[in-house]
Write a structure and sequence with these properties.
The structure holds 2 protein chains of 2 kinds. Chain A is mostly helical. Helices cover 79% and strands 0% of the residues of chain A. Chain B is globular and about 45 Å long. Chain B has a 7-stranded mixed beta sheet with strand order 3-2-1-4-6-5-7, with helices on both faces. Classes of the chains: A mainly alpha, B alpha/beta. Chain A binds chain B through residues 91, 94, 97-98, 100-101, 104-105, 107-109, 111-117, 119-121, 124, and chain B through 27, 30, 34, 47-58, 60, 64, 67-68, 71-72, 75, 168, 170, 221, 225-226.
Chain lengths: 126, 226
């Protein structure tokens, strides 16, 4: 990597970094009691801040990995993360479906109505 | 002692025909209507009928409604449970015939088939017949049970099957799921010919080919991702 990397922030770098930090703090609040989610999110945000601060870094890593451009590397990472997110959320959705089904079912069974049924059964048994 | 036969009818917006379907069953069975959050006047249509009426607060699907009915029937001490469609497609006369087969053949579940008698399968609309043949192969590959029919909603089961089967597929993929569970839980089964009446009404309400693809995806998701 070049030794003359500049650490001075341009206005857009500063803005993006602040935005990412705000997202990081918000996510820490959002994912209560979910350490793994929190760590995952913070890792992503920190990576984002580092990439914004040192634009040469993704390029350097991409080169070392043989991806080509730094933008491609970021794109691949984002794409993979996006698919992972969909899978995790979908799984969660399925779990919620199961819970909702159980609640609705219990409710339906508890609140059944049987107009005339018992009278008729009694008559048949006579 | 006579068996307690529970006929479970899952129903969603079948207000126009549900009364007629239930009345066609006569008085000899205990009818459990599971109203899957219908938005029509289903509840009013059956209000004075001698049946158990259960209602889902939100629409969950036919599989979920059947399982609700089965849980209820189990709780009420059912000996035999019948799955019966709300749209009047099934023949009430088949119930006793199937129950006899269930007992005589000493099996746990009797599955209706439209492909065992020529008259029955000729009554199936041509496109649906083709779809069912494909579904039969898919079912066979997925479940290892090679039946003559696929997705026939008419089934009769004993209490053991009732206890063993737990449907997780809320929507139409439950038909394949039942087969998977029959195999996994080593239930004894047999197919029996049944005649389905395809009215204009039932065809409009019935499944379309797009639904078949949805079912396939549901089955895959349930089998590999849950």
């Amino acid at each position: 990597m070049n030794a003359d990397i500049q650490f001075t922030f341009t206005p857009i770098q500063l803005l993006l970094s602040i935005l990412l930090l705000v997202i990081a703090v918000a996510s820490l609040r959002l994912f209560r009691n979910r350490l793994l989610y929190r760590l995952f999110f913070v890792a992503i945000v920190l990576t984002g801040i580092v990439f914004v601060s040192i634009p040469e870094l993704p390029y350097y890593i991409a080169n070392r990995l043989g991806v080509g451009r730094g933008v491609d590397l970021v794109f691949y990472l984002l794409f993979t993360g996006f698919l992972l997110l969909i899978a995790v959320l979908y799984r969660r959705l399925l779990q919620h479906d199961v819970i909702i089904t159980q609640i609705i079912r219990q409710n339906a069974i508890k609140n059944y109505t049987s107009p005339n049924l018992h009278n008729q059964a009694r008559q048949q048994n006579k | 002692m006579t068996d307690q036969v529970f006929v479970i009818i899952p129903s969603f917006n079948e207000g126009k025909v549900i009364r007629q379907t239930i009345r066609s069953l006569g008085n000899q069975y205990t009818v459990v209507l599971v109203d899957d959050a219908s938005t029509d006047d289903t509840a009013n249509a059956v209000r004075d009928l001698p049946i158990y009426y259960l209602r889902h607060d939100i629409n969950l699907g036919q599989g979920a409604a059947l399982q609700t009915g089965m849980d209820f029937a189990l709780q009420q001490g059912a000996d035999i449970v019948v799955h019966f469609d709300a749209d009047g497609q099934h023949n009430p006369a088949d119930i006793d015939r199937f129950i006899s087969v269930l007992k005589d053949q000493k099996v746990d579940i009797v599955l209706g088939s439209r492909f065992m008698r020529q008259d029955d399968f000729l009554a199936i609309p041509r496109l649906r017949r083709l779809l069912l043949r494909v579904a039969r192969i898919v079912n066979g590959l997925l479940t290892g049970l090679w039946l003559s029919d696929a997705h026939n909603g008419f089934r009769v089961m004993n209490r053991q099957a009732l206890r063993s089967i737990q449907l997780k597929e809320n929507r139409m993929a439950h038909a394949t799921e039942i087969l998977m569970q029959i195999r996994r839980k080593h239930l004894h089964f047999i197919e029996c010919p049944t005649h389905i009446i395809y009215t204009d009404y039932s065809q409009v309400k019935g499944q379309r080919w797009q639904g078949a693809i949805d079912i396939l995806i549901d089955v895959f998701i349930n089998k590999y991702f849950r």
